[in-house]
Amino acid sequence: MNQRPPAHILLVDDEPHVLRVLRLALEREGYSVTTAHDGHSALAAMAERLPDVLISDIQMDGMSGRELCPLARRTYPDHPFLILVMTSMTALDERAWARALPQTEFLEKPLSPRQLVARLGRHFAAPPAGAATPHQPESPHVQ
Amino acid sequence: MKLNRIGIILIACALAVIALVVALLVARQQDSQAAQVRVKGVALARSLAGMPVAQLESRDTAGLLDALLAWHDDGNFAYAAITDAGGRTLAEVTGRGTVTPRVPLPPDAAAGFGERALPASASNGALREFYGPLADRSRGGAFVRVGFHQPRYAVLARDVSFLALLALAMFLVVPVIYLVIKREMAPLAGLHRQLRQLAAPGQPVPAGDDMRDMIAGMQASLTQAGERIASLEQGTLSATADNRLLQYGSKKLNAALQSLPDGLVMLDPAGGVTFVSGKVEPLLGIPADALLGQPVELWCRDPALRTLLGRYAGANRDGGQVHGGQVHSVEFSPAAVEGRHVCATAQPLSGGHGAMSFGTLVVLRDVTREHLARQAGNDFVAHVSHELKSPLNVIAMYAEMLADSDEESLRVESLNVIQDEIERMNALVGNLLNVSKLDAGSMSPERNRVRLDDMLRDAYDQALPRAEGKGLRVALDLPRELDAVTIDKDLFRIALNNLLTNAVKYNRPGGSVTLAARNDGHEIVISVRDTGIGIAPADRERIFEKFYRVSESGAPVARGGHGLGLYLAAQIVELHHGRIAVDSEPGVGSTFSIHLKSAPAPAGAAVL
User: Closest approach of chain A CAs to the CA of B477, in angstroms?
Assistant: First the structure.
């Protein structure tokens, strides 16, 4: 697990507590984690280092997740990293736009860090066939 | 028919004229015959008088008289005789059936020739006698007498055909005259009829028999027409008055329709627009001129409205059957106007208990406010659930971490965060309840005279631990004497707490919060001053709105605001007839101040 560079995860949420808990949980699993509090800072972080997985909240001041996710897809068309959108059941109509984006899935709120870790584990263990990009080879190390 | 009588009169006149002409002709013939007889008689008498007596008296001369008779026997000749003075006939010749009348000659016969009429006797008819003395003998010795029958009135056979022809010719003139008169009278008859109709419409025109009837009828008609014109004029006058009244009523109705707060559109049964009130243009964004007289398909660009109107137009056109008062509504956002919501209600416009269909009445109502309110309600629910979910989410995460983590510091952190979030939820729920009470208007403040400094001190004491936990200094600045106010203590505490919570929440480490109050004329000003991040001018106008939260990109820690605190504070202050104000400088700090009217203490009033 420690031989290869760890998979990079970008967390975007305007709730510092959420960022803190998820960072702790993910870092404990050996992921490298960057956090951002809204879409603008997320894009800035992406420009510095492309993530293997983008985990974003929807409702945020500044740039919301709804703007961020399509923009990230458009900005980096060659890097189809997984996008996980944290949403609550109350926003059912919010889901249509996310379905239109490739490689985008939902995480139900309240979010359990354990479930998130398991989900990421599955993702890196069996990367989807279409996701074979130069970026992928470093990901399956998580097992 | 009046012309019949004219025809009969004409025929009668013609017959009379014919009779007169015939009579005149016969009389003239008679006259000419009489004149002829006279000439003949005088000539014969003179010629006979010139003859010698001997020849006349002798038997031989009888042949001469006979010859005379034969010559003159044309039917008039009666006799010729020679008499002596005593009246004895010396010689004579007579026509058939005639006897020389034994009538003595008048005494003047010896003096010269004369003539006389002899009345009819038993043997003879009326005679005309010419007489004179014979030239041969001494005067008075012998006389000559010649008699002629008075000519009788008789139509001669040769005249009959002429008279018949004449009568026929005259008789033929009658139809011509009749026709001419008839022709000349035809327009007059027409005029009569028209006059009659004009005078008394609806009544059948009695057939005038003749001219006089007709003229009398015309006169009557003219009189009637005059009366009718007069009554019509009267009618026109009253009709004008009625019309004005009607116009006034119609204008009033129109004004009422125009001043209705809703827009009205009326469609005829075929679907064309017949009436548009002034309110329609701003509602639909289509000028009234573009609507009037046009079918729906031409102007309506809103599918919802078009479908609605299509139902009515179709139903009216197909069956002519009114919908039975069925009313349909549709809400839509007009294509030509931005940000407006209109509710269109269509119903059949019928009169006489549904027997008559005038088309469709469409009422357009601006429901933008209702729509926004509904949207705000939906937003409110979404917002509240989000606001509740966020702390729940955090609590769930920390609870999981608490369970998984063995590290002591993380466990403490988890417990602290969970406690904070529970507090945050509690505050949110409390504020929500108050807001809903405020919005429903069911919150009536129980106002009492309150000693403000006690209340402020309580609030200060409550805020102190929270502020010190964040490393903030808190100061209380009260004058020695503070006027009393009449307020609802519990409500006012919520407002004060919300202001103090914000002052702590949006402060910076090492900053300060000052709670102060002062008398300012008839007012008491309570202010909460912080040295926090401040509020941008654009946000300052909106911070008292419900759920408005200043967007804070780059805040180092979560503030956990829910956009209700300031709204609630402002509402509570307003409920106390006070006002709330904010003064702020971004990066330096903000001061919220509540202005309340002070209540001078009446003598003996209880102060809580």
Answer: 35
Top residue of B380, B390, B406, B416 to mutate, by most chain A CBs within 10 Å, is: B390
Portion of chain B with pLDDT greater than 70, in percent: 85
The pLDDT confidence band at residue B116, using thresholds 50, 70 and 90, is confident
**Would the ipTM clear 0.95, i.e. be above it?**
no
Helices (H) and strands (E) in chain A, counts: 5, 5
In this prediction the pTM is 0.47
- The radius of gyration computed from the CA coordinates of chain B, to the nearest angstrom, equals 71
**Judging by DSSP bridges, how do beta strands A8-12 and A32-36 pair with one another?**
parallel
How far, in Å, CA of B268 to CA of B275, rounded? 9
Distance CA B302, CA B340 (A): 13
pLDDT digits (tens, 9 = 90+) for B11-63: 888 889 888 988 888 888 888 888 888 888 888 888 877 777 666 665 555 66
C-beta neighbour count of A27 within 10 angstroms: 13
Q: Residue A22: its chain B contacts at CB < 8 A?
A: 397
Q: What is the strand order of the sheet B77-84 is part of?
A: B89-94, B77-84, B142-149, B127-133, B114-118
Q: Pairing state of beta strands B342-351 and A8-12? A: unpaired
Closest residue of chain B to A40, computed from CA coordinates: B553
User: Can you give the three-state secondary structure of B84-123, one letter per residue?
Assistant: ECCCCEEEEEECCCCCCCCCCCCHHHHCCCEEEEECCCCC
User: What does the alpha-carbon distance between residue B352 and residue B322 come to, in Å, rounded to a whole number?
Assistant: 12
**Cβ B65 vs Cβ B57: under 8 Å:** no
A110-129 pLDDT tens trace: 888 999 999 999 988 875 54
Q: How far is B396 from chain A (nearest CA, A)?
A: 7
Q: Answer whether B385's CB lies under 8 Å from B562's CB.
A: no
Shortest Cα distance, chain B CAs vs residue A32, angstroms: 19
d(CA B466, CA B457): 15
When scoring A11, A15, A17 by the number of chain B Cβ atoms within 10 A, the one with the most, hence best to mutate, is A17
| pLDDT at B559 (0 to 100) | 56
